[in-house]
């Protein structure tokens, strides 16, 4: 059984958050980010190597799911919601 380093876990966390920001729909994007943060916070004090490996492998599977879902999300367009910040326009003089 191999162990998972904290560097690998942090890298996975960052990749998952990065993928979650790719959702075109605001609600999906924010929900995914919340769930990722919550899941990693819940598991941060885990010390059993076998449990950590199980959690890590589960998160890797979830990353694959995120990649597929964000690709599908980008195929469809959604109107921006009122709560979403608008992109700033650059004035040309």
Automatic annotation (TrEMBL):
CDD domains reported for this sequence: Complex1_LYR_LYRM4 (cd20264)
Matches recorded under InterPro entries: Complex1_LYR_dom, Complex1_LYR_LYRM4, ISC_assembly_LYR
Cellular-component GO terms for this entry: L-cysteine desulfurase complex; mitochondrion
One BP annotation, GO: iron-sulfur cluster assembly
Domain Complex 1 LYR protein: 7-63
Pfam family membership, one: Complex1_LYR
Family membership: Belongs to the complex I LYR family.
Entry protein name: Complex 1 LYR protein domain-containing protein
Organism: Scheffersomyces spartinae
Lineage: Eukaryota, Fungi, Dikarya, Ascomycota, Saccharomycotina
